[in-house]
Amino acid sequence: MSFVITTPLYYVNDKPHLGSVYTTIICDSIARYKRLVGEEVIFITGVDEHGLKIQRTAIEKGIEPKTHCDEISEIFNINWKNWDISHDKFIRTSSKNHELVVNEFYERVKKSGDIYMGVQKGWYCVGCEEFKDNPENSATYKCPIHQKNLEWKNEENLFFRLSKYQKQIEEIINKPTFIEPVERKNEIINFVSRGLNDFSISRTNVSWGITVPDHDNHTFYVWFDALLGYVSAISSNTKENLLEKSINGGWPADIHLIGKDILRFHAVYWPAMLISAGMKVPKKVFGHGFLTREGQKMGKSLGNVLDPNLLLSKYGNDPVRWYLIKDISLGNDGDFQDKRFVDIINNDLANTIGNLLNRTSSMSRKWFDNKVPDNEKILCENKLEHLAKISVENYHEKFNSYKLDLAANEVLSLAINTNLYLNDNQPWLLIKEKDNLPIVKEIIYNVLESTRIIGLLLQPLLPELSSKINSQLGSIYKKEVPWDQQLKWGLLIRNSNLPKPSPVINKLEYE
Ligand code: MSP
After folding, report:
1. C-alpha distances out from residue 322 to 142, 254, 350, 499, Å
2. Which atom of ligand 1 is least distant from the CA of 13?
3. What is the mean pLDDT of each run of 10 residues along the chain (511 residues)?
4. How many CA atoms lie within 13 A of 411 on its CB side?
5. Bond before 271 cis per omega within 30 degrees
6. Most ligand 1 atoms within 8 A of CB, residue of 224, 288, 290 to mutate
7. Considering only CA atoms, which residue is closest to atom 22 of ligand 1?
């Protein structure tokens, strides 16, 4: 059984922003962790290419939608390479395979008697690609997310009988682990308790979409089409029975990690669509918070959009990952503050973790001929071994409950404790007496060993820094020994050579 994790399929109206980078980094970290503990992982990301928003963006640029989508999809692809994202699938909803999945799915839903023709009237936000049912809707009301006016629509559409699934959806959303975090779950329970309305799944005024097989002048509503991208990502490239193939490919997803604004689609509409088509529903939908910048919503009009690629080229991957993972509790909103970013990276990565490695390995090199000490155990109680064991246990528990900030904090605490152990024991004073040599060896071995474990624990969080730390200790990660076995105390080889030192993380300057 595979562990299937998905990011949202990002709209290609623009290149990736900090929000999309955030979700993708979190998914990447979870996917890496699951692989390390031995699970077979399918990590899906991709792009959502159809709909009115994309059609209009292409028209504004004066190019064909397909040309526009090819361009931006490629930018997403390159972007994830630059961020060293470890996804297994990149799905484009303009692909032929996806169209076949959508058509097959539609036939199933139709067979269940869940499609009918009706009239859709209402206020529509093109940015959200969603009809809005707020009481304050009007031609002058602006969508709070996109700051754009709503548009009035009145047209004949095909509808999906969502109302039929009221009871089943209530059961699903009340399951203890289906929606996280709990505040989001309550919002959805509230929404569903007001009664589910059928929703329209086709458009007659949007040409850039998948044509509905039995209604040539209709294209599928972009959300009906896009959610199915998760399924087409894992259905093999044949012409029929694609939905069955997706089950062999790993369906249902274990977790859809998405932003809070699109929870309704994933936790209500999507499960109902799947039940109607006789398919399994995802196991979990996790709605994370929104990122702001220096306390303000990011927006082009405010001129405060933070380009993630500038951050990447200026600071590198690890610092940005650390800030986004460790400083924001997954599920809560988070704020990107330049000064705080610099302080956190300098304190946590440079001063605490980097410095720990530098000082211990340089003591070991100096006193033990560029080697790990060849000590024999003399201290009866190994405090650091005990602390490391607890940190490893907590770290697994936090990762498994998607508390990535706390997992990162667990690594940091171990580094803080290791520095304290070093300061308390003061090997630089002990070494002055020849008789103290055995105990100095043991202290230095313990600190190096704890640093090795810190390096390994960083692997799913900060893959680059992790491999730098481990190669500085000469303990290069071996694929054949399972990662969690390598987290056991005492595996650093005594008397082994320590490679030439080189800095693993640079201090940042606040401009
Ligand atoms: N195409 C749909 C998703 C379809 S999934 C089958 C979509 N795309 S999006 O590009 O507009 O949004 C992608 C994700 O970015 C969403 O999860 C959204 O919540 C998230 N974010 C948009 N702005 C954000 C922030 N400022 N901060 C964090 N995430 C934010 O919706």
Report:
1. 35, 25, 12, 26
2. 10
3. 96 93 98 96 97 91 96 97 98 96 97 95 86 76 82 91 98 97 96 96 94 95 96 84 82 97 97 97 97 85 83 95 98 96 98 96 94 80 93 98 98 98 96 94 96 97 95 76 91 91 89 78
4. 29
5. no
6. 290
7. 19
What's the CATH number for 338-486? 1.10.730.10
**Residue 93 exposed, middle or buried by CB count within 10 Å (0-12, 13-18, 19+):** buried
Beta bridge partners of 25: none
Ligand 1 mean position, distance from CA 99 (Å):
22
Which ligand 1 atom is the nearest neighbour of the CA of 230?
A: 6
Q: How far is the CA of 45 from the centre of ligand 1 (A)?
A: 12
- What's the rounded Cα separation, in Å, for the pair 19 and 195? 31
Please tell me the class of the 3-289 domain: alpha beta
For ligand 1, residues with CB inside 6 Å are 8-11, 19-20, 22-23, 48, 226-227, 229, 258-259, 261-262, 290-291, 298
Strands lying side by side in the sheet with 2-11: 89-92, 40-48, 2-11, 255-259, 285-288, 179-180
Domain ranges of the chain: 3-289, 338-486
- Say how many Å lie between the CA of residue 417 and the centre of ligand 1: 38
Question: Which numbered atom of ligand 1 lies nearest the CA of 10?
Answer: 10
Tell me the whole-structure pTM to 2 decimals: 0.95
Specify the amino acid at residue 388: A
Q: Give the orientation angle of helix 317-326 with respect to helix 18-36, to 10 degrees.
A: 90
The sheet carrying 215-220 orders its strands as 202-203, 215-220, 211-212
For residue 228, report the distance from its CA to the centre of ligand 1, in Å.
Answer: 16
Cα of 393 from ligand 1 centre, angstroms: 33
**Residues 427 and 418 sit within 8 Å (Cβ to Cβ):** no
Q: What is the pLDDT of residue 246?
A: 79
Residue of 5, 6, 261 best suited for mutating to test ligand 1, as the one with most atoms within 8 Å of CB? 261
Contacts of 206 (CB under 8 A, 6+ apart): 50, 51, 52, 55, 219, 222
394/484 Cα distance (integer angstroms): 13
Angle at 383 between CA 377 and CA 384, to 5 degrees: 85
- CA-closest candidate to residue 330, choices 232, 233, 401: 401
- Please name the residues in contact with 244: beta carbons below 8 A apart, sequence gap of 6 or more: none
Residue nearest to atom 20 of ligand 1 (CA): 259
| Distance set, CA 308 to CA 27, 48, 90 (Å) | 17, 20, 20
Other Cβ atoms within 10 Å of 17 Cβ, number: 15
- CA–CA separation, 405 and 322 (whole Å): 9
Q: Which atom of ligand 1 is nearest to the CA of 227?
A: 6
DSSP string for residues in 427-444: HHHHTTSGGGHHHHHHHH
